[in-house]
Amino acid sequence: MPLTPEQQAEIDELRASPRPTLRAVSEGMEGHLYRAHPVLDHGLVRVIDYMGDDGAITQAARVSYGRGTKSVSNDEGLIRYLMRHWHSTPFEMCEVKFHVKLPVFVARQWIRHRTANVNEYSARYSILDREFYIPAPEHLAAQSTVNNQGRGQVLEGDEAARVLDILREDAMRSYDHYEAMLSQEGQQGLARELARMNLPANVYTQWYWKVDLHNLFHFLRLRADAHAQYEIRTYAETMCGIVKDWVPFAYAAFEDYRLGGMQLSARGVEALKRRLAGETVTQENSGMSKGEWREFEAAWG
Ligand SMILES: Cc1cc2nc3c(=O)[nH]c(=O)nc-3n(C[C@H](O)[C@H](O)[C@H](O)COP(=O)(O)OP(=O)(O)OC[C@H]3O[C@@H](n4cnc5c(N)ncnc54)[C@H](O)[C@@H]3O)c2cc1C
């Protein structure tokens, strides 16, 4: 269950008592505030707080560039200009704080993004819930034969059932042992900080994650990408939907220049120019390595 009844009651109470404010408000984000978006089987993403909107980005840009920004008259155009030219600091004026519930192996990938502020549920202090991520059948795939860091064909039939049984059994057995170590009738039991060490990496943890919009876009570009593992990607995609409603101009520029756009090396630009001029360019005469050429061909045909 993504949310406990107590957490749901807290959300209902918070949403039932809105307060007036003089601060900038994003109507789109107000709709998300406190609401839990379910992710995976027991996970969630919800917005706890935010600061700023599209206007905060252009306001900061106009302070820093003054007259220079007059040439870009509207907010949308200015935001696109800033994104196009990698002027990142105006995007740092917006902040968001998420509550995320996620399996530990996803948290390990996520925590590599160092430019956020994090507070995690303490398994030294509290007892972890009996909640483990078990992939849905369509995400239970074999090791890819072409990509060492990826999945191949989806498992089916007996093979899928065998793997699911192992995952469930291991999770339940290790949780039973966790509980047994914590308390034994008439005995003191093992400290929570030690008993947790036999739990598998698909056990769920939770944290508050606060980040500015520039660094959030960096996270989303890497983790909403097809190269990212499905489990973290599904969190990133949920967050993309939230950011789109929060700062629609900034998100549209991000989608255009970062998610949908692509970078070219100087050699790539040269190869493209020569091709457009009618020349036959091959890997051998492009100056690119085989790997670079493969990626270039995949992108440009
Ligand atoms: C598809 C994929 C596969 C990956 N595979 C692996 C893997 O196999 N093994 C592995 O270990 N990691 C792996 N990673 C993690 C990856 O190497 C990065 O650690 C992670 O994506 C965080 O990126 P970041 O450092 O740019 O982000 P952040 O930590 O948020 O930093 C943002 C930017 O701030 C700057 N910055 C932050 N801290 C510092 C610092 N201390 N010094 C200098 N500049 C800093 C950098 O410019 C950085 O790009 C993978 C990531 C992805 C997306």
TrEMBL record:
Keywords per UniProt: FAD, Flavoprotein, Methyltransferase, NADP, Nucleotide biosynthesis, Transferase
Cofactor: FAD
Matches recorded under CDD domains: ThyX
Record protein name field: Flavin-dependent thymidylate synthase
Coiled coil regions, renumbered to chain: none
Enzymatic reactions: dUMP + (6R)-5,10-methylene-5,6,7,8-tetrahydrofolate + NADPH + H(+) = dTMP + (6S)-5,6,7,8-tetrahydrofolate + NADP(+)
Cofactor binding: number and manner: Binds 4 FAD per tetramer. Each FAD binding site is formed by three monomers.
Gene designation per UniProt: thyX
